[in-house]
Records
---
Amino acid sequence: MSNLHYKMLINGDLVGAEATFPVINPATEEIVAQVPQAEEGHIDLAIEAADKAFNTWSKMPLSQREKLILTYADVLESHKEEIIDILISETGKPYDNAEYDFGMLVTCLRYFVEEAKRIDQPVINDPDGRFLHYIMRQPLGVVVGYLAWNFPLLNVGYKLGPVLASGCTAIIKPSQVTPLASLRCAELSIEAGIPAGVINMITSNDYDITNPLLTSDKTKLFTMIGSTKAGVGAMKTACTSVKHFSVELGGNAPVVVYDDADVKKAAQNIVDLKFANSGQVCVSPNRCFVHESIYDDFISEAKAHAAGIELAAGRQDGRIMGPLISNKERARIIGSIEQAVTDGAKVVSGGKTPADKPKGYYLEPTILADVKLDMAIAKDEIFGPVLPIISYSDQDDVIALANDCEYGLAAYVYTTNLQRGLQAAQNIEAGSVCVNEVHYAAHLPHGGLKQSGVGKDCSSYSLTEYLTLKRVSVLVNE
C-alpha cells in the first residue's frame, strides 16, 4: 500500500505537492501511504479560498446548507467500511474503536445542523419602552483547525460540524501522523456538493509553512485539539491580530473511588476507559485515588478485568487493545513505568512489550499499585495504557489531592452516597465530572479548565463559539 498517494482539498480541487511524507501503520510498522507536504502557495490559496467561500456560504439560508450537510453525512456513511479500513491502517485501532471514531463524525454533522435551528436570539427589555433590543447571531468567518491523531475523524466532526452549521468556512490540518481517513472524508465533500472553498484540508509537518494559517488576519477562529505546550505555542503565534480561540489541551484526569463505591463496577468501568484506544485519550483516567479500605479489592478486580484484554488491531472479535501510535511513544511510556518502579511503585499486571508481537508498537495494559503523588507517573499526562492506583485515607482531603494539578479536563467519581457524589462534582476543578459511569456525547459540552484549554467542543455551547453576538437596538417610540 506504500505506493498510495493521497491529495489535499483546496478550493474544491484535489491537490498534490512535489514533496510527500509517509504515514506508518503502527500495527505493522509498514508505510501505508504518502501524503503531500504543503507548500507556501497551498497555504495562501487555502486562506483565499476559505475567505471567498465565506461570502456565499455564510449568506446561504440554513435550510439550504442543511440539505448539503445531510447529503454529506449520507455520502460518508455510504463509504463507511472503506473509511474505517483506512482509519485502521493509519491508527492500528480495533474495529469497534474505529467505527466509533467514524460514527462521531457523521453524528456531529447531523447534530450541529439541528442545533443551529435552535440558536437563541433573545429580545432584551427596554426599561423606558423606547427601543427594541435584540441579539443577532451571525457566522464568525474563516476557522482554522489543528487536530490530534488519537481520534482523527471524531476530531474532524468536533470542528467541521459547527463550522458548516454556523455558516463558517474551514481550513483543517489533521495530524501528520493520521491524515488519511480525514483526507478521504474531505474528498467526499465534493461528491456531496459542498461548495468549493467551504472545506479545505491540508497536510504538513512543517509549522514554518503552515504558520500563515495562524497569523493571517482572515483567520477569525483558531481551534485545536492537542497538548498544552503545543496549544500555548500556537496561540502565541496566532496573536498577530484579534482572534477567537477554542482549544482542548492536555489532561491528567483524577478518579476518586470512595469507600462506599461498588468496587467491581468502579474497577471494570475505569479499566475499560483507561485501556480504550490504548490509553491515548485526553479524558483517560491518569490518577486513580482509591480508599485504603477497598484498595486491595479494587486492585484485584481491576487486574482480573484487564486480564481479558487482547492485543490486536482491526477486525478481530473480543476485548481488543491496539498498538501505541509510534515506537517513540511506546519507549516514552515504558520509561515512565520503569521510573515509577524505581521510585517504589509495583507492577500489578502488564508493563512489557508482548513477546508474541514482534511487529507493531504494542504495550501490555499496565496497572501500577503503591503509586505516590510525587512520582512523575502521577504528575504527568501518561497518554498510554498505564493505570496508576493511589491509596488514600480518611485523613486525606481527596478532593484537594485530585485538584493538585495544572490540568482540569475530566474527572470521575464513584460512590453510592448521592450527597458525597454531588459535593465531589461541585468541588473538583474539571470541565466535566462523571459520577458512577463514564458518559460523553455530541450534545454534552466537552472542554477543560485551568491549563486544559478554553472553549468547548460538542453541544450548543460549542456552536455559539462559531457565531458572533451582536446587539441591535431599534428606536420604536420617540
---
Amino acid sequence: MTASTRDQFIAAAKVLFAQRGFYGASIAAIATELGLTKQALLHHFGSKEKLYGEVLKALSGDLLAATAAITDAHPDPATRLEELVVLQLRSQMADPCAARLIMRELLDNERRAENAGNWYLQPYLDTLIDAALAIEPLRADSRGRALAIIYQLLGAAHYFTVSTPTLTSIFGAGQFGQARDSYEEELRLLVRARIAA
C-alpha cells in the first residue's frame, strides 16, 4: 500500500469515526466506505483499534506541525499562546470532522482509557502547556494548573466549532455568521484576559 493510499484510508476512516464514534463505526462499515473487504482492511491495519490510532496519530501530527510553525514564528510567549489557541479554532473551523473526532474521543473513551497504550494528542497538549508556562505571570504555576488554563481556552474554541450546525439552525445563517466572524477576536480577548489575570 502506498503512502497516499494509506492516507486516503485514514482520511475516510476519520470521517466515519467522527460521524459515528469509535464504537459506532464498525470495521465492516469502514471497509465498505473504502471499497475494501473487511479482511483487506484488517490486513492493512490489523484491527479497528490500530486504524483508530492511526487516525488520531495523523490528527496529532497535523496539529503538531502547525504548532511548530507558530512557535517558530512567534518568539514572544504571550503572542505564541494566543496564536496557538486561535490555530485550534481555525483548524477546526476548516476541518469540522477533526473537531467532531476530538469531541468523540473525549466523550467515548471511558471504556478504553484504562487500557490505552498511547495518547496521541498528549504531545500537542504538552506543547500548549509549555507555551503557557513560558509566559511570565504563569511560570510559577504547576503543569496541572497550566493544563486547566489550556483546556479552558481550547474548550472555548472547540465548543464553538462543534456547535456550528446547531447554532446555525437555532439562530439562522445570518446571525450565526456574525457570531462566527466575531469569534476569533473574542477568543483572542479571552486569551489575553487570562494571561493578564
